[in-house]
């Protein structure tokens, strides 16, 4: 695999890992339990945690620590900004049930996109430019 392809793979895995981690953090608040079914929130958190561990192991296998830090810089910062906006929105809406419903739909959409990207990454052996 060429160096550029490997960096792209590291960035992709890093972004997917960060997406899971931020989602886990979002649903790890007391406010999420108040607005959503606690059993479903717990199942979601468990699933997110397991996937985070898988991505963390995958990232370690693909690149060393120095390169993985490089791969996380740009895309991860954008993702952090995205989730910061979600936290601000929830706070502005005083963590209302309606705000949580909107966020829940948004997170499902984002995780669905992440899942598609991960499947594509696995199918193309890390080359996201492949058809």
From TrEMBL:
GO MF annotation list: cytokine activity; cytokine receptor binding; hormone activity
Record keywords, A-Z: Antiviral defense, Cytokine, Disulfide bond, Hormone, Pregnancy, Secreted
Pfam families, A to Z: Interferon
Keyword Disulfide bond in record: yes
Domain of life: Eukaryota
Entry-linked SMART domains: IFabd (SM00076)
GO biological process, one term: female pregnancy
Residues in coiled coil: none
GO CC list: extracellular space
InterPro entries named among the record's database cross-references: 4_helix_cytokine-like_core, Interferon_alpha/beta/delta
Keyword Ribonucleoprotein found: no
Subcellular localization: Secreted
PANTHER family xrefs: INTERFERON OMEGA-1 (PTHR11691:SF37), TYPE I INTERFERON (PTHR11691)
Family: Belongs to the alpha/beta interferon family. IFN-alphaII subfamily.
Protein name in the entry: Antiluteolysin
